[in-house]
């Protein structure tokens, strides 16, 4: 597959983008889910005993005391949410990016990448926010919920449908700059490591990891507020971002906004690397299937030979002329409809 086919894929096949995006989202969230559980526990208002330690200590303690399965509690709801959310996310990003680049007549426009990523986040978070609420309720230390279904029922019965979108504005306030920085950093990494924009697994992994780390570090304070809104722990029930900010500050001061920073970065580095490498692989693989023609139509060999000979003669006799003019300069015994001459 050549470069033009690979790069033209996003604008020509929404289905391919959605399939690749869904696969990337599921892989990203499932593989790194235990680290995400650690992050949630570290960001709770009142973490578990020992929850103030580093991410590795919290992870090992959770697995040792509660078993490996506990670290994956709630992963099913993330699979259900991440698939459609990332399908919309990547397909919208590719469409907006290519349309805006075409209009600006620019091949390297990082503001376009950031804007496309930020707009795509609106769709992504609209699908993912309810899944995030359920996931984080199940990830909490001593979570009272038995499973995903019982958690959904209890939230809906006691808090109403609004509870599933209580943190939506906070999540947008976090994810719009996160995804803007994420896509700018990824495309910048690609321009350095993969300027031809071909399928390059190493470049995709390194660029994705770099993008995830930088975006995660910059947006951790809002991620803490989102966790407080989603978990509604210990009778503290903030209803919006402003209240969540006040509560975090009252409980832990300025350092409280950076709880779980190490876990968040440790999660995002491999997660975004997995996400981008999976997405680019499926885009490349499905593009190859799309462009495979089982019954290729070839030109007759005599015609190709004749045209190549005429082009070669044209270049020899008049090296400054446009090669295609030979097709019009070729005189025949019939009437000439169009004769392009060299002035």
UniProtKB/TrEMBL annotation:
Location(s), subcellular: Mitochondrion inner membrane
Protein's membrane topology: Multi-pass membrane protein
Solcar repeats: 12-99, 108-192, 199-285
Phylogenetic classification of the source organism: Eukaryota, Metazoa, Ecdysozoa, Arthropoda, Hexapoda
Record-given protein name: Mitoferrin-1
GO molecular function, one term: ferrous iron transmembrane transporter activity
Gene Ontology biological-process annotations: iron import into the mitochondrion
SUPFAM superfamilies: Mitochondrial carrier (SSF103506)
Similarity comment: family membership: Belongs to the mitochondrial carrier (TC 2.A.29) family.
Keyword vocabulary terms for this entry: Ion transport, Iron, Iron transport, Membrane, Mitochondrion, Mitochondrion inner membrane, Transmembrane, Transmembrane helix, Transport
Any one GO cellular component localisation term in the record: mitochondrial inner membrane
Pfam families: Mito_carr
Tagged with keyword Repeat: no
């Amino acid at each position: 597959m050549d470069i033009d086919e690979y790069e033209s894929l996003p604008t020509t096949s929404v289905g391919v983008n959605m399939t690749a995006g869904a696969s990337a989202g599921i892989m990203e969230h499932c593989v790194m889910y235990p680290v995400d559980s650690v992050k949630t526990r570290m960001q709770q208002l009142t973490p578990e005993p020992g929850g103030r330690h580093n991410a590795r200590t919290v992870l090992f303690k959770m697995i040792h005391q509660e078993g490996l399965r506990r670290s994956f509690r709630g992963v099913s709801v993330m699979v259900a949410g991440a698939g459609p959310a990332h399908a919309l996310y990547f397909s919208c990003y590719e469409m907006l990016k290519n349309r805006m680049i075409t209009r600006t007549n620019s091949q390297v426009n990082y503001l376009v990448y950031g804007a496309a990523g930020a707009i795509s986040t609106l769709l992504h978070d609209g699908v993912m926010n309810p899944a995030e609420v359920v996931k984080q309720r199940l990830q909490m230390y001593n979570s009272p919920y038995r499973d995903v279904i019982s958690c959904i029922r209890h939230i809906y019965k006691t808090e109403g449908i609004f509870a599933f979108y209580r943190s939506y504005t906070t999540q947008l306030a976090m994810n719009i700059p996160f995804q803007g920085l994420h896509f700018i950093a990824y495309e910048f990494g690609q321009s350095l490591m993969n300027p031809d924009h071909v399928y390059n697994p190493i470049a995709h992994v390194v660029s994705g990891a770099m993008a995830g780390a930088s975006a995660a570090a910059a947006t951790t304070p809002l991620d803490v507020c989102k966790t407080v809104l989603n978990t509604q722990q210990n009778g503290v029930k903030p209803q919006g971002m402003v209240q969540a900010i006040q509560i975090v500050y009252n409980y832990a001061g300025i350092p409280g906004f950076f709880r779980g920073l190490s876990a968040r970065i440790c999660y995002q580095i491999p997660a975004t690397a997995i996400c981008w490498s999976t997405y680019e692989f499926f885009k490349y693989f499905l593009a190859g299937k799309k462009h495979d023609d089982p019954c290729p139509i070839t030109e007759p060999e005599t015609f190709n030979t004749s045209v190549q000979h005429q082009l070669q003669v044209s270049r020899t006799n008049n090296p400054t002329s446009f090669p295609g003019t030979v097709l019009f300069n070729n005189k025949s015994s019939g009437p000439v409809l169009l004769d392009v001459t060299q002035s």
